[in-house]
Amino acid sequence: MPAPPLLALHGVCKRFGAVEVLTDIELELHAGQVVALLGDSGAGKSTLVKVISGVAPADKGVIEWESGTVQIRRPHDARDLGIATVYQDLALCGNLDVVGNLFLGREIRRFGFLDEMEMERRTRHLLERLTRDVPDLRARVVSLSGDQRQTVAIARSLLGDPRVLLLDEPTAALGIDQANEVLDLVDELRDRGKGVLLISHNLGDVKALADRAAVLRLGRNNGFFDVNTAPQETILSSITGATENVPRRTASRDAGW
């Protein structure tokens, strides 16, 4: 019998005023798995990430964490469960160095003073665990390359050793080589047993990296796919609406969802 998912959503709805942005959303994410969240602009992907991260709590539905029902009403709730989010804009402070960005808002103090040596030690250790080299930890983030900035943002999200990471378009603003570096990093996170929800418009990245794909269209589920076996054209049809309301049997627990 397959292990229960780390995170599961059942019948989740989200409304902004008179507009229902998400309707009856179903989603499951297991440890050591990358699930790609796909859909056209306006499909509800970013809103779903905000629901899971506690930025925009769901209005209806059930969220489960390791098979137990939980309430995610604010970002601290998600963080306490073990959910971390890296948004598309990265939310880094360009005028601060790498260490300053990682510990912004959660600085380590000793005898009332900032413990710069301990924060630098932990930063170096974390980046080494990610097998990524940022040569100068005291360099301002604004001077780093795109993939190095993405690494810093992911490293910051890993400070609390989360079990689930939500990555919003992590390669959107990167060149091919830089994007490959970030994809390798996501692959390493999966190998370490993290569950990763990856928002991406790049089907090439999805086919190369993800285990499964969940498609949203107009705020509703429109298909679940095993990325290793589903033709790219089938996934694309679900995204564009050429195929509507793909049956949920591919998302059943028997299929590993």
UniProtKB/TrEMBL annotation:
Recorded GO terms, molecular function? Answer: ATP binding; ATP hydrolysis activity
Q: Which domain of life is it from?
A: Bacteria
Instruction: Supply the SUPFAM superfamilies for this chain.
Output: P-loop containing nucleoside triphosphate hydrolases
Keywords, ordered alphabetically:
ATP-binding, Nucleotide-binding
Which residues belong to any copy of the ABC transporter domain?
A: 7-243
What protein am I looking at?
ABC transporter ATP-binding protein
Organism, as annotated: Streptomyces flaveus
